Amino acid sequence: METAEEIITAEEIVTEEKLKYTVETEGLTVTFYGREAIKDINMKIRANSITAIIGPSGCGKSTFLRSLNFMHDLTPGAKVNGTIKILSKSIDEYDMTEVRRRVGMVFQKPTPFPTMTIYDNVVAGIILNKGKKKKELDEIVEQSLIYGGLWDEVKDRLKVSAMALSGGQQQRLCIARTLAVNPEIILFDEPTSALDPLSTSKIEETLYNLKKKYTIIIVTHNMQQAARASDFTAYFFLGKLIEYSKTRTIFTSPKEKLTEDYVTGRFG
Q1: Which of 170, 155, 167 is closest to 116 using CA atoms?
Q2: Which residue of 3, 52, 118, 254 shows the fewest CB atoms closer than 10 Å?
């Protein structure tokens, strides 16, 4: 696995002290009723980048992702060991609400609130956490939908039910809802697996635009998507991190045979 220095491009004359990582894990191990799902995961994820997590089903990709915002606290029999740092601070120093504001999550299946309008879906998290005036909410809705790549398609029907949107539009609405509470990091768990190619393309374009402001971590089974959309890629196998490097390295000249076999389609 490449070191922090090796993953910096030749054009970047940056010292180790100036590197900015928004997520760091050391010895991260997650067990369910004593069975290890991931073991000894050591990663540093850079700000304003897209990191793809790839690997076969059951290899621990989603388990790793969900450990980054306390989701395993809701799972019976789950135990998380090791160190997780969010924005250079141990995750244990945050309360659950604060972690989930700073580390947003977008799931595989679009999850708009079915009884709410498009507008109300976007502001739901804000209203639950703190009150704002109508003008402020209007500005947040517009900005979030712009960043989510949906504003031009829905700006004239914000009071329509969210369920009137297509699947791809619903997923971008969920992204906008996540953005509305002003996170620094956004986790995506296979966000396009149920979408058509056009909707997938729009989500990928949205991700590319979002990385200018946020850190993006995406779990995907689609290796073409990882190759297209990410800056860095981590390959997981049987709960272990096999290789983590720049995406072009993973897909053109991986160091590990297991990685090469997977990305070339020899198994998986």
Answers
A1: 170
A2: 3
**219 strand-pairing partners:** 53, 189
Q: For residue 204, give every residue at least 6 positions away whose Cβ sits within 8 Å of its Cβ, in sequence order, or none.
A: 192, 225, 228, 229
Residues 6+ apart with CB under 8 A from 171: 106, 110, 191, 192, 195, 199, 203
| pLDDT at 6 exceeding the cut of 70 | no
| 78 closest CA partner among 51, 108, 38 | 38
How many residues would you count in the chain?
A: 268
User: Tens of pLDDT along 22-52?
Assistant: 999 999 999 999 999 999 999 999 999 999 9
- Extended beta strands in the chain, E state: 21-32, 35-46, 50-54, 78-86, 89-90, 103-106, 185-189, 215-219, 232-237, 240-246
Reported as a single tens digit per residue, the pLDDT across 223-263 is: 999 999 999 999 999 999 999 999 999 999 999 999 999 99
Coil, strand or helix at 43: strand
Q: Which residues pair with 52 in a beta bridge?
A: 218, 233
By the 8 A CB rule, do 37 and 63 touch?
Answer: yes
Q: Which residues of 119-135 are buried (b: 16+ CB within 10 A; e: fewer)?
A: bbbbbbbbeeeeeeeee
Burial label, 12 (beta-carbon count in 10 A; 0-12, 13-18, 19+): exposed
Q: Count the Cβ atoms, other than its own, within 10 Å of residue 219.
A: 24
pTM for this one? 0.89
What residue type is 51 in one-letter code? Answer: T
In contact, 150 and 169? CB cutoff 8 Å: yes
Nearest-5° Cα angle at 164, 159 to 166: 130
The count of other CB atoms within 10 Å of the CB of residue 159 is 9
